[in-house]
Amino acid sequence: MIGVTIDGRRIDVPGGTTIWEAARRLGVDIPVLCHDPRLEPVGVCRICLVDIGEKKLTAACVRRAEDEMEVRTSTPTLDACRRGLVELLLSDYPCDAADRFKTAPDELLGLARELGVAWPGNGAGSTAGARTADVGGILAGGGRPVDDSSKVISVDHQACILCDRCIRACDDIQVNEVIGRTGKGYASRIAFDLDVPMGESTCVACGECEKVCPTGALSLRDLAAGADGWERV
């Protein structure tokens, strides 16, 4: 067992415990977008940055706690970093992503409200129809496409923050190994099999990817809206 002090409160945890896990046991909420307790941490989003007295801030989800370590989870610098990261993620977030039907709340928008970050809204929602054109690359009108080829799950690449939660859930929890990454720079996005539309891939529509997605990138299609709705599936 090792002793860690988090925001002035001490807790003993087993060696190998991450700072995020130790804080959770203590009841301290360190915000995170790329991590889920069921998944191996990857430290992609950097929202969980904490101050441990080192030169650089560290990601709590991947950094292991050390004996006699002192951790601060909220300082003016940390709060400014988190707000800045959320502002960047929301800078081109599609307006209609918040309206998509999900089994869990949109964590990105929830964090924005918690941190007092205004969602600028860039009008991307008004071009949702145009964004359904091609699954690959960047559309002529700007922005990333919407993939509605699956009868169960809609994929809005513009709302994806590349946290890799869906990839890890598909691989490690369901062991389907359907989702990966493709593209470079702004065109980077999740892909299914050898970069085919989700509805044409080997996806079995288990819904695990939608369940762990922290944004409106993966959402359940409103099947009941159609005349034959659920019967079609």
Q: Note the total helix count.
A: 6
* Proportion of residues in β-strands: 5-15%
**How many runs of DSSP E, i.e. beta strands?**
10
Low-confidence stretches: 122-136
CATH class of the largest domain: Alpha Beta
Secondary-structure element pattern, one letter each:
EEHEEEHHEEHEEHEH
Mean pLDDT over all positions: 87
Integer count of domains: 2
Structural class: alpha+beta
Estimated radius of gyration: 19 Å
Largest sheet: 3 strands, mixed
Mass-distribution shape: globular
Helical coverage, percent range: 10-25%
- What is the CATH T-level topology of the largest domain? Alpha-Beta Plaits
Query: What is the CATH architecture annotation of the largest domain?
Result: 2-Layer Sandwich
Instruction: State the end-to-end CA separation.
Output: 51 Å
Strand order of the largest sheet: 2-1-5
